[in-house]
């Protein structure tokens, strides 16, 4: 198959080297600016850098994790306050230590503010964060910054005490923050932020705590806010509450949304705009407060169009790249057709039905007893009991509304009101959360698309696998399922392919049991059969049991050794597939549904 990545070690080294190279180039450019710019512009440039760091943080919580936080300058005020306090107390270590302490303190406050985000979404979260900003603003006006009454200026770091030196220092801080964010975004935390923004259920189903994803986003975002505020304290040396008002936080949020601040370059661009717009207004003799109106108008445009400047530019670029990838895939498919690979899709007529599973030896992988789910007056599942033998593929079939998806939801822990007993191997799952079930080895896929489009295939597969996997392992499983190459952006592939990647990623997680809820939906008939052929091999190849929900009985016949038929929430028949499909009750239930039996 054509998708194996070549030279994974080399590409890993390149992945590490290029952001470092960009950061070093940025620092060099910053140095040149620090000696080249006139004094006034140096001051403005420091303001742009501090704003860029605050916007970088906002990009994480709003852009990546999809939450609304309207108190970024409150976190900045916390950072500035800690720096001022440490300055007054002359805490050893100097400005750099104070700045880090300011960032950490703001991070802790960020976690506290993020706690409501575990329950609140959208406008409610916006109100809470704005309320926090307003409350802190009032408090700050009362308590002021340490040392401000006595006029004790914040001491800048040694060697960087001039405005030019301090600008260069702030550029170094920005470069370090940019690098940290870059690596966090590409690591597990970054994937969890993007996943939680797209689907909390999808996130929990791969064993990632939704709470942790949200709180880490808030913490990192606030810490960057704190660092930005600390830097500002060093810039102005006597910070005032008027630099950190809720209105400014709002404007910063709008700027982050409008520019697409989860993209590092766009956060820097946002920082420049933050300074440039009021400066231009001043030069044109327009009151600077009109800057808020301009930011507001740009924000409305971004929110209504559902995109932002950075994403718009990238989309244009990727459109061309995706065109090339699609062409390469077509060529690869044609090649595969000309030179058949090891795992061949079955010719429809020639694939024999799967023989009955051997009598289950030892413990079943999954056993369910008396599972009942009630939605109001409707019993979606009524006393369902079944066993999935280890290393088998069990088909779960039934007419529309029979309760198949409800079964998967209940087993995977998404319906806590379900009654009955579920055992994974020997372990009773009781009221265990979906996250814990996933970590224990019970994985599922969804009928709806829950694959975060903001990730690449590689990042998604690694995120779902939740274990250290090599590039070869990733390439192998993608290859096996006929998925696009690891570097492909998920936003650039169709829903059917995304769901194929979802299956591949969950297989790579090597769970004990994998529940697949109509994995072939969105695929062509040919791809349907190809997937079936591969699923048939999964238990032996990757060592897991599969429960497959599927309407296509051709596929079920070729893949599943045992079948369970649900009808109106009850088990109609269960056992070896030939026996079940010959059962008169099953035939009767299906007669009105399909002629395929
Ligand atoms: N959250 C819910 N609230 C109320 N009723 C629900 C809910 N979820 C499912 N149901 C009902 O439970 C029954 C079983 O639904 P379920 O989605 O499990 O069926 P299914 O066999 O998966 O159907 P399909 O093949 O169409 O996906 C249906 O009557 C459905 O309307």
UniProtKB/TrEMBL annotation:
The keyword GTP-binding does not apply. SMART domains: AAA. It is found in: Cell membrane. CDD domains: TM_PBP1_LivM_like. The keyword Membrane applies. SUPFAM superfamilies: P-loop containing nucleoside triphosphate hydrolases. Residues 334-359 are annotated as: Disordered. It comes from the Bacteria. It is a multi-pass membrane protein. Keywords: ATP-binding, Cell membrane, Membrane, Nucleotide-binding, Transmembrane, Transmembrane helix, Transport. The chain crosses the membrane at residues 16-34, 40-61, 68-89, 95-118, 125-145, 165-184, 215-238, 250-277. GO terms for molecular function: ATP binding. This is Branched-chain amino acid ABC transporter ATP-binding protein/permease. It comes from Agromyces soli. The lineage of its organism: Bacteria, Bacillati, Actinomycetota, Actinomycetes, Micrococcales.
């Amino acid at each position: 198959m054509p998708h194996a990545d070549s030279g994974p070690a080399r590409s890993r080294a390149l992945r590490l080297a290029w952001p470092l190279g960009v950061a070093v180039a940025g620092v060099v450019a910053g140095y040149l600016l620090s000696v080249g710019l006139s004094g006034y512009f140096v001051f403005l440039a420091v303001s742009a850098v501090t704003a860029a760091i605050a916007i970088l943080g906002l990009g994480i919580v709003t852009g990546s994790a999809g939450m609304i936080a309207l108190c970024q300058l409150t976190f900045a005020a916390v950072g500035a306050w800690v720096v001022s306090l440490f300055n007054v107390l002359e805490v050893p270590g100097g400005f750099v230590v104070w700045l880090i302490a300011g960032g950490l303190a703001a991070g802790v406050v960020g976690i506290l503010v993020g706690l409501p985000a575990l329950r609140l979404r959208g406008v409610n979260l916006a109100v809470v964060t704005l309320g926090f900003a307003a409350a802190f603003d009032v408090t700050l006006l009362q308590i002021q910054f340490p040392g401000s009454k006595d006029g004790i200026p914040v001491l800048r770091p040694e060697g960087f005490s001039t405005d030019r030196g301090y600008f260069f220092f702030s550029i170094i801080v920005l470069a370090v923050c940019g690098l940290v964010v870059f690596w966090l975004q590409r690591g597990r935390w970054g994937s969890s932020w993007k996943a939680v923004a797209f689907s909390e259920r999808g996130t929990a189903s791969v064993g990632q705590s939704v709470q942790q994803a949200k709180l880490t986003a808030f913490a990192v975002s606030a810490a960057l806010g704190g660092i930005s505020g600390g830097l500002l304290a060093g810039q102005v040396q006597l910070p005032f509450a008027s630099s950190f008002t809720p209105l400014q936080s709002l404007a910063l949020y709008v700027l982050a949304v409008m520019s697409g601040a989860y993209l590092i370059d766009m956060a820097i661009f946002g920082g420049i705009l933050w300074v440039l717009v009021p400066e231009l207004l001043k030069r044109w003799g327009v009151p600077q407060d009109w800057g808020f109106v301009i930011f507001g108008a740009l924000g409305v445009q971004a929110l209504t169009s559902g995109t932002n400047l950075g994403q718009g530019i990238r989309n244009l670029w990727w459109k061309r790249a995706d065109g090339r990838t699609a062409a390469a895939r077509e060529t690869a498919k044609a090649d595969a057709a000309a030179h058949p690979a090891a795992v061949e899709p079955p010719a429809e007529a020639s694939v024999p039905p799967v023989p009955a599973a051997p009598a289950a030896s030892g413990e079943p992988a999954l056993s369910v007893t008396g599972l009942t789910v009630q939605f109001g007056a409707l019993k979606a599942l009524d006393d369902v009991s079944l066993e999935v033998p280890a290393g088998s593929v069990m088909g779960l079939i039934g007419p529309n509304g029979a309760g198949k998806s409800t079964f998967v939801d209940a087993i995977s822990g998404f319906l806590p009101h379900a009654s009955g007993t579920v055992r994974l191997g020997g372990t009773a799952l009781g009221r265990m959360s979906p996250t814990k079930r996933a970590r224990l080895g019970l994985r599922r896929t969804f009928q709806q698309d829950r694959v975060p489009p903001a990730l690449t295939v590689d990042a998604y597969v690694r995120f779902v696998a939740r274990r250290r996997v090599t590039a070869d392992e990733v390439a192998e499983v993608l290859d096996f399922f006929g998925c696009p190459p690891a570097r492909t952006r998920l936003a650039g592939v169709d829903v059917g392919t995304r769901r194929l990647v979802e299956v591949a990623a969950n297989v790579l997680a090597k769970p004990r049991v994998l529940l697949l809820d109509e994995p072939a939906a969105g695929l062509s008939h040919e791809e349907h059969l190809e997937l079936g052929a591969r699923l048939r091999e999964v238990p032996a190849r990757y060592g897991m049991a599969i429960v497959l929900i599927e309407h296509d009985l051709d596929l079920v016949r070729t893949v599943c050794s045992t079948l369970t038929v649900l009808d109106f929430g009850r088990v109609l028949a269960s056992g070896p597939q030939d026996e079940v499909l010959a059962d008169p009750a099953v035939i009767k239930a299906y007669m009105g549904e399909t002629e395929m039996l």
